[in-house]
Amino acid sequence: MKSIDYILIVLLSVGAFQGIVYGCILSQKKGMHFYANRFLAAILLFFSYRLLVETSKIFGYGRYDFWYQVLLEYNWIYGTLLFFFVKSYANPDFRLKKKDYIHFLPVVIEIIWSFFIKSQNFYWDGTRESLSWLGYYGYMAWMLYPTMYVISSALLIYYTSRSQQLLSHLPELTNYERIEGKLDWIRRVVIVIKIFAIIYIIIILIDYFFFNFASNLFYGHPVFIGMAIITYWLGIEGFSRRKDSALKPIQQLSSKEQKQLEEIAASIQKVMSEKALFKDPELTLSTLSRKLNQKPYLVTKSLNNILQKKFTDYINELRIEEVKRALQNPKSKNYTLLSIAYDAGFNSKASFNRAVKKITGKSPSHLKSNT
Fold it and tell me: What CA–CA distance (Å, rounded) separates 21 from 231?
């Protein structure tokens, strides 16, 4: 055995071991995201299984022997598990329905195909005639062409793309409020796995079309080292956040609380309309609460639950609307946009630019062009 083989054994074994340990821990029923963590645990365990299979091949097991017949391929399940992990992490109420099981069809086909192809060794006597038409061409497609690898990578690319789309257009939740930034680590995981799959499928196709699929051993080991690194990283990410939460439950209001907060919201809107308090650049939540003779936490609760806005966003929206109204006045041509923003209550150019960008999604110059 070469020294490179010993290095590979250590790297793959460490990745597999970490994946198994973290997978077992994450499979426990704890925290808001326990259901999502079970999908993550499944990903880690399947990754670990694949790394152990590859390690056994370095020792000479699994190459046309007993273990070759027993050890199956599960390469077509990673994308499905990743997609359901993302989906259930973004929505803790998500549960698999009957229609969702269609996504597991590729791995079922892979298992059946793998069993069928491996069974052909019992009939093979060195001649094409010893195998059926399906057995011969199925064996060719499975063993002599990069079929399984291309499909595996394609499935990963497809499901990581769907995961990215889901993370970009998160569904509205009635019982939870999302905590900003808590899904960023999942976005990173999805991007890394997608890049990994894209690089792999490109290398596979280059090898097939230009080198007659003869270089597999050259890049095969780096691929599994990459898988070991991803398994280790994914395990650490999931383990460190196993008790963390990307959402917080929305407290349901009683009819009495609802009425009280609606009255406060009406008072907020009235005082803003009649006294234009938003024009005060020093306006704070405490100042507004004193004006309304209400406790600050009730004003915040009213803004969040009734007007569905944070205090700063609400005030900045009113200020931007004031800027738009001022720009419609012909006299506004005599003033700069920044001076109008100051009159509306903004206290700096940076805060004005930041607020306009956040609320309208455009630069402040668009305010002038749209009036």
Answer: 11
Q: Kindly state the helix (H) or strand (E) to which residue 176 belongs, with its residue range.
A: strand 176-178
Q: Is-contact 320 312, C-beta < 8 A?
A: no
pLDDT in tens, 312-353: 999 999 999 998 888 888 877 778 888 898 998 998 889 888
Dihedral, 135, 140, 142, 145 alpha carbons, nearest 10: -170
Position with higher pLDDT, 4 vs 256: 256
CA distance 312 to 278: 10
Q: How far apart are CA 369 and CA 125, in angstroms?
A: 79
The pTM assigned to this predicted structure is 0.68
What 3-state class would DSSP assign to 5? helix
- Are the C-beta atoms of 203 and 211 separated by less than 8 Å? no
Residue 73 has pLDDT above 80, yes or no: no
- Cα Rg of the chain, angstroms: 29
| Among 149, 249, 255, residue whose Cα is nearest residue 203 | 149
The set of long-range contacts for 40-43, using a CB threshold of 8 Å and a minimum separation of 24, is 40/85, 40/234, 40/238, 41/238, 42/81, 43/78, 43/81, 43/82, 43/85, 43/234
